[in-house]
Design brief:
It is a single chain. The chain has helices spanning 6-24, 29-33, 43-66, 78-86, 91-110, 114-117, 134-146, 160-176, 204-211; strands spanning 120-122, 128-130, 183-186, 199-202, 221-222. It is mainly α. It has a 3-stranded mixed sheet with strand order 3-4-5. The chain has a two-stranded antiparallel sheet with strand order 1-2. A hairpin with a 5-residue loop joins strand 1 and strand 2 (128-130).
Length: 235
Amino acid sequence: MITGTPGRSLRWMAEGQAYFLTRLEPASDEELQGPSRLPGWSGRHLLSHLGYNARALGRLVHWAATGEETPMYPGPDARAEEIEAGAVWPVSRLRAFVAEEHDRLAAALNRLTGPQWDAEVVTAQGRTVPARTVPWLRGREVWIHACDLPSGGDFADFPADFLDALIEDALTRRRTAQGLRLQVRATDRGSRTDGSTGVVEGPAADLARWLTGRGTSGRLRTTAGAPLPELPPWL
């Protein structure tokens, strides 16, 4: 989880949205009505999710700004219901929805003052975090989901500092929430292992793709020569 100065996360969020829109543009409406690269979701489901995710994160920003408790979702089924409701909209409406809701979230974040960035809010997973975490949560969504579009992006396009933070975030979640004993080494970062034989190593982009459940590649290997561990869903 990223909890430091929000400036870096705000940059990642803005760059991620720009990247997502760049990858969305070449996708035809017909392609987006078909399956995305995310199993079980069409392209319209993906766009619906991203629009409603920005709106839900905006509720956390409102909470931080006003002190009024406004959870991301009013109930446990609300997220899925919103996504399904939006997935029947025309693709043109969904394209606009993603852009408009993201811009509204960015504007709300830019209005937060210093103390408000430290206000505690609760994520959809029930984690209490400072509001400064919200740009990271949104940046993570737009960068990763760009790779789920039919005309998908590539983790190799991600900024190096964001990619490193994403690996750290995914590892932390898998170790703490899922109890997995994972060690990785990015071979293109000049990092070293501690000599353990259970380390998964490969390029940072491939490690991030694997850790976030987006598949593996022949460039990943374990130092013991064993098959890669099977990972449960990330989020």
